[in-house]
Design a protein that fits this description.
alpha+beta, 2 helices
């Protein structure tokens, strides 16, 4: 089963550049944050951190409780020809897609 055939969650990423030039990245829904020297590296860092966070929730069996507590909705995969296609601009965990390495529910 491909990632587009699996349930997914939508998350928002917020990026900002600090006065010292560092970029910060935050996943609002998960409360996961990171920083890097460039925007591209900040995107990579937050994508990796979100995957680690989600995999940790899954490994400890706390994903459902965490999602319920924070109001994170799991969406059913889209059907048919109107299926959303991810774009090259999206990093591993942008809204509407699950990262390839996320081992979430099938």
């Amino acid at each position: 089963m491909g990632n587009q055939d699996r349930p997914y969650i939508e998350v928002r990423m917020r990026f900002s550049q600090e006065d010292d030039g560092q970029w910060t990245a935050e996943c609002e829904e998960l409360g996961t944050a990171g920083y890097a020297d460039t925007l591209e590296r900040a995107r990579e860092a937050i994508a990796d951190l979100v995957v680690l966070h989600l995999n940790g929730l899954e490994d400890f069996g706390t994903r459902e409780a965490f999602f319920e507590k924070w109001g994170i909705k799991v969406h059913a995969p889209p059907d048919g020809p109107h299926r959303r296609q991810s774009t090259a601009d999206e990093s591993a965990y942008m809204p509407g897609t699950l990262p390839k390495c996320y081992r979430g529910p099938a």
